[in-house]
Amino acid sequence: MGDDIILLLHHQDAAEHAFSSDTDPSKLGHGVSLCFTLSDMGEFDAIHRRAVELGARVLAEPHFNEQAGHTEMEISDPDGYYLQIAHRDEPMVPRPAGQ
């Protein structure tokens, strides 16, 4: 959060992630997941409203993810890119690779 950038790498078929439900590897966005974490719940709600207004495909409505410890929503843009938008009150604490 803030100016921090956290890189998360995992297998595309990881069970806890719904991204890339499109199985056609020739399409734009196939296998690409972009995740944004916000500290302002008002911004989170505004992004959800705007995405719905613009006709984004909502893959998962806002919900609390116990495993991640944040509220999240999942949408797909017109090119098929998977976007996860999350709200977290507390900053994330990165773990060293392999943990």
Poorly predicted parts: none
Number of strands: 4
CATH domain class name of the domain at 33-87: Alpha Beta
Mean pLDDT over all positions: 77
- Helical/strand content category: alpha+beta
In percent, how much strand structure appears in the residues? Answer: 25-35%
- Main sheet makeup: 4 strands, mixed
Q: Give me the number of helical elements.
A: 1
In the CATH classification, which architecture of the domain at 33-87 applies? 2-Layer Sandwich
Work out the radius of gyration: 14 Å
Layout: helices, strands, pairs:
Layout: E1 33-38, H1 41-53, E2 57-65, E3 70-76, E4 82-87
Parallel strand pairs: 1-4
Antiparallel strand pairs: 2-3, 3-4
What does it look like?
This protein is an alpha+beta fold. The chain has a domain at 33-87: Signal recognition particle alu RNA binding heterodimer, srp9/1. The chain is built from one helix and four strands, in the order E-H-E-E-E. It has one helix at 41-53, and strands spanning 33-38, 57-65, 70-76, 82-87. A four-stranded mixed sheet has the order 1-4-3-2, with helices on one face. A hairpin with a 5-residue loop joins strand 3 (70-76) and strand 4. The longest helix is centred in the middle third of the chain and has 13 residues, at 41-53. The protein is flat, with a radius of gyration of 14 Å. The protein starts with 32 loop residues before the first strand and ends in a 12-residue tail after the last strand. The model has no long low-confidence stretch (mean pLDDT 77).
